[in-house]
Amino acid sequence: MEEFWIYCDVCGEECPHEVLKSRTSSKRGFSFQGVVKCLECDTTRSTEIKEEPPLKLRLRISDDNQTKKDFLSIDKGVVLRVGDTRPHPDGLILITGLEIGNKRPSQAYSQDNPVVWAKKATHAKIRFAIHEGESTISVKQEFEYSEAFKVGMKIRIEGRIARIKAINLFGGKLVKTAHAIEISRVTCTYEKNKKR
């Protein structure tokens, strides 16, 4: 038995309806024409349902120094924000930027057709800028996406203990605490005489 949850005029709310007769199409979105029976009040009526096809936005997924071109299927009217996560066939992605023409807004509606810049959200590669005297070392290290970092915290990088001095999010904002997936760069200094 095929069922739909649709609005029933008699019940005054969404209820399960049994499909008695139907004709469907998925050429341009999804359309349904048929006869349905409300399973709450037994009212039989004909109905038509039309859903627009999802939009296909251009997607750029960054992975270290490589960028993969793809598409993001999304419904019309959805607000996309930098910092939000979205489902994707390859796994969860984090939106790191939006591009509409020459502009880089922090949020946009899906129908504005932005180019969506993102990275995979299962793990995060964080770039560390470690100051040691006159020199600065740049190191990348992978963490679970949900691991938390805060200014003043000690962390082991390449076998040495470093103290976090600053945390930069995507978009350049400086913060005191953040999760690995949100972080663009962490500035640190090595602790003296703290070798493994």
Task: Explain how this protein is built.
The protein has strands at 3-8, 13-25, 30-38, 44-51, 55-63, 66-74, 79-81, 85-86, 93-99, 107-109, 115-120, 123-132, 135-144, 148-150, 154-157, 160-169, 174-175, 177-179, 183-195. It is built from no helices and 19 strands. The radius of gyration is 25 Å and the shape is elongated. The strands form five sheets. Strands 12, 13, 15, 16, 17 and 19 form a six-stranded mixed beta sheet that branches. A five-stranded mixed beta sheet has the order 6-5-11-9-8, with no helix packed on it. A four-stranded antiparallel beta sheet has the order 1-2-3-4, with no helix packed on it. Strand 3 (30-38) and strand 4 (44-51) form a beta hairpin. It is mostly beta strands and 196 residues long.
What is the gist of this entry?
The protein is mainly beta and 196 residues long. It has no helices and 19 strands.
Query: What share of the residues does DSSP label as strand, in percent?
Result: over 45%
Task: Give the SSE string.
Answer: EEEEEEEEEEEEEEEEEEE
Mean pLDDT: 85
What's the end-to-end separation, in Å? 66 Å
Structural class: mainly beta
Count up the helices.
0
Q: Report the biggest beta sheet as strand number plus sense, adding barrel if it closes.
A: 6 strands, mixed
Low-confidence segments, ≥5 residues, pLDDT <50? none
Per DSSP E runs of 2 or more residues, the count of β-strands stands at 19
Helix content: under 10%
